Amino acid sequence: MTIRINKQDNTPLYRQICQQVRQLIRDGQLQPGQLLPSLNQLAIMLDISRETTKKAYNQLLREGLLIAQQGKGIFVAGRRETDKKEILLILDKQSVYNQILVQAFQDTLQDSVHITILLHSQNLDVLEYYLNQHLDRYDYYVISPHFPLDTRSQARAAKLLRRIPNRKLIMVDNWIQDVPGNYGVVYQDFRHDAYEGLSEGKADMGSQLKVMVLPQSLYGQIILESVYDFARENGIGVSVSDTVPESLEKGDVVLVLNSQLDSGLALLARRIAEAGLLPGKDVRIIAYNEFPLNEVVLGGLTTLSTDFAEMGRQAARMVLSDTLCKVHNPFHLVRRSTF
What we know:
35% of the residues lie in helices and 19% in strands. By secondary structure, the chain is of the alpha/beta class.
């Protein structure tokens, strides 16, 4: 067993030992049943205190990676064929869309795994804390990497995700492409998907598209570029605002690029009613992202959306097959009465 520690590193020595033993087990250099050095032997090998090696071994024993046999020593435990895979889901927030994704993920895996769910709230400090606490303790890390889009935040997000071994990492919903390697991804293409979705309804789009990009829409400006591409190619005018248009006229088509149903869409519906217009007949509405209540909102809300259930199923299939790949998730215009 070859372990090298760096006493100049800020990482505690016992944690350095734990990280390297986990890696040796993953790489097959330490096999189930293999005897490890005693506490004293390891302390001498690394020129550290016995208390430090004891702390490291105790942590690995708690994780079930090692087993202690009285009078014989400490051995690599290994995984039994009957053991369930451990999955850590780290999602950006509690939302209807994530609930759909998680439900499909769980339904596909059924009882073949143990799943732990955490929320990072689009906060990189929180993600870093979770990785510090849980790195190397799970078989797969399924993460929705939604973080501020400035260069510094995206670079930090990529750096944190690179800490996870490629064979254990599955990104969902967003793909941070600065992370290299053969990991798994099931992603929306925020820059191009809206073009394809709008193209499915271009025959009914009219000559002017009014777009609401609400402040809480993380990817609103990126999606808007895809909308501009569609409009330019089809000779459609585009007006953009960060709130409900002050005036609405018969024949208007409004695209709402908010992250989920909120006061913006409610105000739009109210303003349409105040103008004496009918949704779907006089003013047509398309909202971004699909979830079940859209079937009844405004008599049936038309959406541009990825398939969140399929996203969850695809990530689950990667876990079941232990085969990781990069998949562009289906994205469509879902027509209802508002368009």
